[in-house]
TrEMBL record:
GO biological process: lipid homeostasis
Subcellular location field: Membrane
Pfam families: TRAM_LAG1_CLN8
Organism in which the protein naturally occurs: Cherax quadricarinatus (Australian red claw crayfish)
SMART domains, alphabetized: TLC (SM00724)
Cellular component per GO, a single term: membrane
Keywords: Membrane, Transmembrane, Transmembrane helix
Domain TLC: 1-219
Parts of the chain that traverse the membrane: 7-25, 45-69, 76-95, 115-135, 147-168, 188-211
Superkingdom of source: Eukaryota
Membrane topology: Multi-pass membrane protein
Descriptive protein name: TLC domain-containing protein
Length: 231
């Protein structure tokens, strides 16, 4: 059988496995919440199920990675392990499943929180500038004012839409319910704060790299290709 056909079969089977795991955890949690009179919305149950499957996928992926690294360490260029190409099919099917699961989570939120969904959409506002930076560099325009102007626009847009957007969401929520930001942090569910923090911290790190790159360029030094790949 052709390897491509085998890959699609493996991807299909694993995709059904991911979705089955999601539905099974959904069924068990829903049943448990009814038996224990657990006051939790179906949206939150779906969210927990998605997190459970995501965690399992992360563990499986990590185990496969460790096995591949350990078996190929003696020749990092030419040593092979079947897990490397085959898990790519399994991992690919996971992303298809994840798209379906995220859609269900969005549906079961019952239309609540469109403002916050929109805020996270705005995170991509800096994307055109980060990509234009690479385009200008590859087309030989790295030493021009266009590159510098785009870099400044990238830092400003990144700061607004990936850093300041987080306190803005807390302030907007607090303004609606006449609460201080600290009261908002204490009032909303813990997973909201933890989730925001997990997303927020990498943005601070990337902004730091951008600023260091800008300072380096203003001093007349050359920015490496690795330093440009920030998104």
């Amino acid at each position: 059988m052709h390897l491509l056909v085998k890959g699609f079969i493996l991807s299909g089977i694993s995709g059904l496995g991911w979705m089955g795991l999601f539905q099974l955890s959904n069924y068990l949690l829903t049943h448990y919440s009814k038996v224990k009179n657990w006051k939790i919305s179906h949206h939150h149950i779906m969210n927990i199920c998605e997190a459970l499957v995501s965690g399992i996928q992360a563990i499986v992926s990590s185990v496969c990675g460790i096995i591949v690294v350990a078996s190929c360490r003696h020749d990092v260029m030419w040593a092979t392990n079947l897990l490397a190409p085959w898990y790519a099919w399994i991992g690919g099917s996971y992303f298809v499943y994840d798209t379906v699961a995220m859609y269900q989570v969005m549906v079961y939120r019952s239309g609540v929180g469109d403002f916050f969904v929109g805020c996270f959409y705005c995170v991509e506002f800096s994307g055109p500038f980060t990509n234009l930076r690479i385009i200008l560099s590859r087309t030989g325009l790295k030493e021009t004012r266009w590159y510098l102007a785009n870099g400044l626009a990238m830092i400003i847009s990144f700061t607004l839409c990936r850093i300041l957007i987080f306190p803005y969401m807390y302030m907007a929520y607090g303004a609606q319910y006449n609460m201080r930001v600290l009261d908002v942090i204490r009032t909303i569910p813990l997973h909201c704060n933890v989730g925001s923090l997990i997303v927020f911290l990498p943005q601070v790190h990337w902004l730091r790299l951008m600023i260091l790159g800008a300072i380096k360029m203003l001093r007349g030094k050359t920015i490496s290709e690795a330093e440009e790949k920030i998104d």
